[in-house]
Every structure is written in C-alpha cells, then in structure tokens.
C-alpha cells in the first residue's frame, strides 16, 4: 500500500487511515513528517503471506517457511504457520492466521510496533502479546472485510547494558525466557486471528517505565499465571514503553545485588519512571524485614541521582488479607510510611487489591489467585487496571498516555469471565479526506502551526479524534 505525507504536520498519540481499497493512505504515527518523506528512522517492515506472495513496497516478504535464525534476523519461531490470500492489495490482501510467534533481531531500545489486522473477506479476532506474554492488544475484532491497524511502544532489552558496562545477573530459569535474548518476539493468538504484517520503528524520545519487583510484577511465562507488570502495557498509548526487570523470588536487596537497578539506570534517561514493589519475599527473612526501609531509600537515592522519577507500588495483598496496615507482615504499611518520609509518589496497590477482593466476594476473589499469592489472568488484568488508575491519580507525565482502561473503580471490578468474552468490532469513521478512506479512531493531538492555527490538507481541517472514541 502506498503512503503519502503532508508537509509540516506532526501528530502525537496514534492515528491511522486504513484504506480497504488499496489506494494511497495518509499516515500519522507520532513521527515528524517533512516534505515528501518521513524523518529518518531505524525501521523494520514485514508483510505476511503465502509462499510466492509479493511483498508491499518497502516491506520484506515473510512466508510460512521463514523460520527465525540469528543470521536472517527475522522469522517465525516454528514452521507450519497458516497464511491465506484473499485480496489484491500487496500488504492487506493476504495474512497469517492461527497461533504463532514471530521474532525480529533488533538492538536494545524502544520501538513503535504497528500491527496490521483484518481478513479482506471475513471476520477476525486477534490478540497480540510480546515475549513472556506481555499484553499489547486484546481481542482486536474486525467485521467482515474490515481492516485496521494499531500502534504501541515496546521495549527490547538484554542482561548486558547497551554500552557494555554492566551485566546484571539472571536466574537459571530466566535463561529460557523470551525476555533477555537477542530478539523481540511477538505472539499472535485469537479465535480467528488475521495479521497481514507488522512494522517496527526505533524511537528515542519515548518515556520508559522500568519495573522493579518480584513474581507479582514479572512477565509470567506460563499460561494461566499472570502479574500486573505484563498487563500494564495494554493500558498505555503510544509514547510510553514498559521495561520489566522484575523476577520471581526477589527481595529488594536481592534485586540490588543482581545489579538489575544498576543496569536499567545505565540506560534510563532523565524523566523516565522506575517503580518499586517488594515485600512478599522480604517478609520471609528478619534481616530483610528490618532492612526494608533502608533498602527502599537506596532505590530512591539511586533513581533520583539519574534524574528519573521513583514510584512506590505497595505489595499486592494475599488472598484473604483484609487489613492494609497488617498485610504482607506490615511491609505495605512500612512502604506507605517511607513514601511520605522520602517524598516519593506512591500507588497503593495493596489497598486496591483488598477492595477488589471485597467487591468480588470470597468465591470470585478466589478466581483472581493461583495459590493465594500469585495471580490468574483475570487477577493480573484487574491489578493492571488498578496500577493504571494509580498513575492517573498521580497526574504525572505518563498520565496523558493512559487509555480509557485507567478509568477504574476497584469496588466495581470487571466480571471474572471478562477476558473470555467477544468484543465488538473496532470503530471506524469515514475520513474527511475522501470517501474511499476510513480512519481508525485512536487518540491523537493536532499541533498548531506557528500562527497557532490547526493544519489543513486539501482545504480540509485536520482534527484530532476524541479519546472517548476507542480504548485498546
């Protein structure tokens, strides 16, 4: 599919004009557009289709036999992926379906990931995750013949810092994770998935939110298990990436001794955020309990020294906890006290989890937990909403990047079967730039020109779409 750009326009957020007829489409994606070409960027574009299919201009063709190798730098994790051809457009006329993983070898850093969805002659429902099941797009549903795309900012990282100065310690089990290897792996699932292609573009100006924590924060690899860290990306718009450094079994001093904080701060830039949630494992050792306040102070001191913003997240309540002051052996309350003493922003997740349990009632609250401490997928999802709500209430520089999912009341949780329900097709609206085009409605901001007037194209005012139009 061809692309045209309009001189002098810069848009933030996410907007795409999707053209089911295969004609040229005006594209905005949080990049600077100038003259007749996009600002230079490190980008990777892949067009999925059956063997012999021709790739769209500027894209690399990927057919079912393209299995990942480090030498090639891209490919499916396993052969035998099902691809179909149902249309004439080079990019959107064919697609891959079913459950599969696609990997790209890219340098560490942040990237805008755009996924092209839809079946040219049928319906589709697609969920997209990254690496250890980090949720990016949930049940993107298209009506018959409807095409859509979505963009999100993702982070690719390794144990060794970009500059080579620090290598953090990994646990043995982490060696099998999809988190710390040389590639970014994208997981596709859904009742009837349809992905025509994807694009990755390096971005250097995104906010990075680094997560420090234990198994209640980590990207859980095994199906059924979940933590809030792998759901929080779903509640963020393009412009903020999540870099999850949490790992199961860690205490606050353990995280520090493994040089995880040192490594992430090597790459963090002033204005990035670093959240800290520990307590469940610290509670098990008297030395870690007595050292908990000072360990939290160490995190804050080092984070602020880099010009980053620390956020305390109180440790998630265990099943049956009913008193925020005594939950997790009182360490949640210690964190609240330290947040005030150190003047650190805090998200009281512990209190919100207790609210969730009370709202669900004993039977449904039990469905949030795998074993009384760790969470199921609906538990992780609801906790992700709680954390997003916390960011909204902090009103920091990440707040404008939250989706509608951050509007949440833990006293009124989602149904426990919410993640298995069918969603409505994505909303489309006729474009003002021509009847043949359709715009997928996503939050965006129009930046005025030097005279403070909105930009125009072909005599038509370019307008941002209200945020109420869609949530991811």
What secondary-structure arrangement, pairings included, does this model have?
Layout: E1 3-4, E2 11-13, E3 15-18, E4 25-28, E5 33-34, E6 37-38, E7 43-48, E8 60-62, E9 74-76, E10 82-85, E11 94-97, E12 100-105, E13 109-117, E14 124-130, E15 134-142, E16 148-156, E17 183-192, E18 195-203, E19 207-213, E20 240-244, H1 252-257, H2 260-267, E21 273-277, H3 286-305, E22 309-313, H4 331-342, E23 345-347, H5 349-366, H6 377-394, E24 428-430, E25 438-440, E26 444-446, E27 456-457, E28 460-461
Can you tell me the residue ranges where pLDDT is under 50 for at least 5 consecutive residues?
1-40, 429-472
Number of beta-strand segments: 28
Structural class: alpha+beta
End-to-end Cα distance, whole Å, is 25 Å
How big is the Rg? 22 Å
Strand order of the largest sheet: 1-4-3-25-24
Task: Give an overview of the whole structure.
The structure is a single chain. The chain is built from six helices and 28 strands. It has helices spanning about 250-255, 260-265, 285-305, 330-340, 350-365, 375-395, and strands spanning about 5, 10-15, 15-20, 25-30, 35, 35-40, 45-50, 60, 75, 80-85, 95, 100-105, 110-115, 125-130, 135-140, 150-155, 185-190, 195-205, 205-215, 240-245, 275, 310-315, 345, 430, 440, 445, 455, 460. The longest helix has 20 residues, at about 285-305. The chain is globular.
């Amino acid at each position: 599919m061809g692309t045209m750009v309009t001189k002098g326009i810069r848009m933030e957020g996410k907007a795409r004009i999707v053209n089911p007829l295969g004609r040229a489409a005006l594209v905005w994606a949080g990049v600077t557009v100038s003259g007749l070409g996009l600002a230079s960027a490190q980008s990777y574009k892949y067009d999925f289709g059956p063997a012999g299919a021709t790739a769209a201009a500027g894209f690399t063709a990927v057919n079912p036999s393209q299995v990942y190798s480090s030498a090639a730098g891209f490919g499916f994790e396993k052969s035998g992926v099902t691809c179909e051809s149902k249309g004439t457009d080079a990019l959107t006329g064919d697609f891959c379906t079913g459950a599969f993983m696609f990997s790209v070898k890219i340098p560490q850093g942040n990237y805008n990931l755009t996924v092209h969805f839809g079946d040219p002659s049928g319906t589709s429902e697609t969920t997209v995750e990254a690496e250890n099941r980090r949720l990016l797009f949930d049940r993107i549903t298209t009506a018959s013949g409807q095409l859509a795309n979505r963009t999100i900012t993702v982070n690719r990282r390794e144990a060794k810092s970009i500059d080579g100065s620090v290598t953090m310690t990994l646990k043995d089990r982490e060696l099998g994770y999809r988190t710390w290897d040389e590639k970014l792996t994208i997981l596709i699932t859904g009742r009837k998935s349809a992905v025509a292609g994807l694009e990755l573009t390096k971005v250097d100006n995104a906010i990075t939110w680094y997560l420090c924590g234990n198994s209640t924060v980590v990207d859980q690899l095994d199906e059924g298990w979940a933590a809030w860290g792998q759901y929080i990306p779903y509640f963020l718009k393009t412009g903020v990436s999540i870099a999850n450094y949490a790992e199961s079994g860690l205490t606050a001093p353990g995280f520090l001794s493994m040089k995880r904080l040192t490594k992430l701060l090597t790459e963090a830039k002033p204005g990035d955020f670093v959240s800290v949630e520990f307590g469940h494992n610290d509670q098990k050792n008297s030395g870690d309990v007595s050292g908990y306040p000072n360990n939290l102070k160490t995190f804050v001191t080092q984070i602020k020294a880099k010009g980053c913003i620390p956020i305390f997240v109180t440790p998630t309540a265990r099943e049956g906890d009913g008193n925020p002051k005594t939950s997790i052996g009182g360490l949640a309350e210690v964190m609240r006290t330290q947040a005030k003493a150190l003047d650190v922003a805090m998200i009281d997740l512990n209190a919100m989890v207790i609210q969730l349990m009370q709202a669900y009632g004993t039977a449904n609250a039990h469905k949030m937990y795998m074993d009384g401490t760790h969470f199921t997928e609906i538990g992780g999802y609801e906790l992700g909403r709680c954390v997003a709500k916390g960011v909204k209430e902090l009103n920091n520089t990440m707040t404008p990047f939250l989706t509608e999912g951050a509007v949440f009341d833990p006293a009124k949780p989602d149904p426990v079967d919410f993640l298995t329900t069918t969603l409505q097709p994505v909303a489309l609206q006729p474009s003002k730039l021509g009847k043949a085009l359709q715009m997928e409605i996503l939050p965006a901001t129009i930046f005025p020109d030097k005279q403070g007037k909105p930009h125009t194209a072909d005599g038509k005012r370019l307008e941002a779409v209200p945020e109420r139009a869609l949530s991811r």
